[in-house]
Amino acid sequence: MKKLAIIVLLMMLSLATGAQERNAARLVLTDTSYVDVSLGVSGETGRLRDVYMPASALQGTLDASSRQKLGKVSLYGHFGYGYEYATGSTWRGWINPLETPFMLADSIPGNLSLERYAMEAGAGLPLGDHWSLGLDLSYDVALMAKHKDLRNKNTFMDFRVSPGVHWRTGGVGLGLNLGYERTTERVEYTQISSSVEHILFDVYGLWVVHGSGYASAENRRFKENNRYFGGFQFDWSAGRTALHNDLRASWQQSAQTEVGYNNQQFGTTRSWTWEDELSLSFGPAHVVEASFTYSTMQGFRPLQRQELDPASRIRVWVTYGDPVFCYWRRSHLEKVRYTFGTSWQMLVGLSNLGFEHTYTEYPQHFVQRYHTFTTTLGVSIPLGPVRLTPMLGYAMDYDTYSDVTKWQLKEPLLRQWDYWEGNNYLGALDLKWSSASGRCYVQAHYSIESSTRLDDDGTRHAASLTLGFIF
Question: Can you give the pTM of this predicted structure?
Answer without folding.
Answer: 0.91
